[in-house]
């Protein structure tokens, strides 16, 4: 069997995600051989511009990896799915993810109820900042940058009372002990695709054997859920860093439920909607598009346009 090159970012989390994914592949196809290549993204070099670029629909955490994949320098890229734009570049596609980690956001350093009035809470995500302001407008939400371990250290180095991080990343890094509280999904739904890996490959005939190998890890339930969430985001013309939250679940009965939330950056306005549909009668993508239409009727475009303008000016 040919040896394939796996591309990813160089962070500790990216390395952990590749290790976990390749472990799952090798359990199913023991003869599969892989080497790994680190690709440095513009967002890793210049985090100050990532928020505004993402709000405009781009991503500072995937473009270099996608370019390397398209050029044939790597054969597959393992992303955090929530960091990926909703449209694939020509010649590239996403495979179904191999299951999904915990979708919750985690508050580290405290619980929400224990935070004093005016407590300083760090997050790098506009969605999380908006949700915090909606639930606790008394908090001082502080923008922070960096990978997971440096953000945790900011509890001490920056005098923060708490930081918000994805539970999935903490668990993949073996940092569950840092979780003070898993924030409830009814008030803090996640980013579309949060907790899932984005397995990106080429669509050319030469990549067919690799796609067959990687397809052995596919999880249909996780695939349906993230397809619904990402189609909603696409229909709203949202980037990966606007205050859009979505969470879908596929029940054993075949019923797919998708809930979504849009929050103004100051936390004063919040839109929510939910739809449930049987599959395969309705595709996950059509469910996401329909729910986006419900949110647009409530005024979603006004909130998102204001968010983009504020983030772009930041």
UniProtKB/TrEMBL annotation:
A Pfam family annotated for this UniProt entry: Porphobil_deamC
MF term (GO), any: hydroxymethylbilane synthase activity
Domain Porphobilinogen deaminase C-terminal: 225-296
Source organism, top-level taxon: Bacteria
Keywords associated with the record: Porphyrin biosynthesis, Transferase
EC numbers for this chain: 2.5.1.61
The protein's name in its UniProt record: Hydroxymethylbilane synthase
Origin species: Actinacidiphila epipremni
């Amino acid at each position: 069997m040919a040896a394939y090159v796996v591309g990813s970012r160089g962070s500790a989390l990216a390395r952990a995600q590749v290790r976990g994914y390749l472990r799952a592949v090798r359990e199913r196809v023991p003869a599969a051989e892989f080497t790994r290549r680190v690709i440095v993204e513009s967002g890793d070099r210049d985090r100050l511009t990532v928020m505004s670029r993402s709000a405009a629909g781009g991503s500072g955490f995937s473009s270099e990896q996608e370019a390397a994949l398209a050029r044939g320098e790597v054969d597959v890229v393992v992303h955090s799915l929530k960091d990926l734009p909703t449209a694939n570049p020509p010649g590239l596609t996403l495979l179904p993810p191999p299951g999904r980690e915990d979708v919750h956001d985690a508050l580290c350093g405290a619980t929400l109820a224990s935070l004093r009035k005016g407590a300083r809470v760090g997050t790098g995500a506009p969605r999380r900042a908006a949700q915090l302001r909606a639930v606790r407008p008394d908090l001082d939400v502080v923008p922070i940058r960096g990978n997971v371990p440096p953000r945790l250290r900011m509890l001490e180095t920056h005098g923060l009372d708490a930081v918000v991080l994805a539970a999935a990343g903490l668990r993949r890094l073996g940092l569950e002990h840092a979780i003070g509280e898993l924030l409830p999904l009814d008030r803090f739904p996640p980013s579309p695709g949060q907790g899932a890996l984005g397995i990106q490959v080429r669509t050319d005939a030469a990549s067919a054997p690799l796609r067959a190998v990687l397809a052995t890890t596919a999880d249909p339930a996780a695939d349906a859920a993230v397809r619904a969430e990402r189609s909603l985001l696409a229909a709203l013309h949202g980037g990966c860093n606007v205050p859009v939250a979505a969470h879908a679940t596929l029940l054993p009965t075949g019923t797919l439920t998708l809930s979504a939330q849009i929050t103004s950056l100051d936390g004063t306005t919040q839109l929510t909607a939910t739809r449930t549909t049987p599959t395969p009668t309705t595709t996950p993508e059509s469910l996401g598009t329909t729910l986006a239409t419900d949110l647009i009727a409530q005024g979603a475009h006004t909130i998102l346009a204001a968010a983009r303008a504020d983030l772009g000016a930041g």
